[in-house]
Amino acid sequence: MELNFEIPQPVNYHSSPAELGRQHAFSPYAFNGGTVLALAGEDYALIASDTRLSEGFSIHSRDLPKLKKLTNTTVVGCCGFHGDVLTLSKLLEARLKMYGHDHNKEMTCNAVAAMLSKILYYRRFFPYYTYNIIAGLDEEGKGCVYSFDPVGSYEREVYRAGGSASSLLQPLLDNQVGGKNQEGYDASPISLEKGVALVKDVFISAAERDIYTGDGIAIHIITKDGIKEERFPLRRD
């Protein structure tokens, strides 16, 4: 069988737009929107995401949270390219099952964060297009939040937002939780009830300004008693 391949020619950027014509290119990534937010308290952690899956001006699903329970004390939130989110979630789940079979115990939240860092760094030359945040309880029962860059660098924080509306949420968290550049700010840990109310408020604000965030909020509340999920509606347009 004879195969005919067309070898692409170099583009002459000095040509006029009419001479260049339409350029076809394949991109391995797509952006499916979504926002994830996490907050750590003295004896709890909570992580929330919206439930909209979209691309451009199309909404593919209105009920797709970006949160996945990994252990009884750890939840990961991922958004970005949904294909990479699914791949990364399945890989994390498989690694945790292997760890459980080998050691007969659950991996701690700190260890899960270190493992995710290594997974992302392994793919640094063709990275997963995901915004990743881990929330949970550490070995002392205190809330912890870990944020990651695309190639695995991570740090522990008290709060963090990621995804399409992160530029809207992060300043609100800096003001309401971090007390940035405020004199006489009360730095005492935020209560669980106030944390949940704050998450609802900032997501409502984000849904007004970001078309990729909306439809609903899924909140996972992590305490020593386990993980509880709550849902609240957002605007659907």
Description:
With 237 residues, the chain is α+β, with helices and mostly antiparallel strands. The chain has a single domain (35-179, 187-234), classed as Aminohydrolase, N-terminal nucleophile (Ntn) domain (Glutamine Phosphoribosylpyrophosphate, subunit 1, domain 1, 4-Layer Sandwich). Helices cover 30% and strands 30% of the residues. The protein contains five helices and twelve strands. The strands form three sheets. The protein has a five-stranded antiparallel β-sheet. Strands 5-6-7-8-9 form a five-stranded antiparallel β-sheet, with helices on one face. β11 and β12 form a beta hairpin. α4 (166-178) packs antiparallel against α5. The termini are far apart. Mean pLDDT is 90; it is low at 5-11. Keywords: Cytoplasm, Nucleus, Proteasome. It holds the Pfam family Proteasome. InterPro entries: Ntn_hydrolases_N, Proteasome_bsu_CS, Proteasome_sua/b, Proteasome_suB-type. Belongs to the peptidase T1B family.
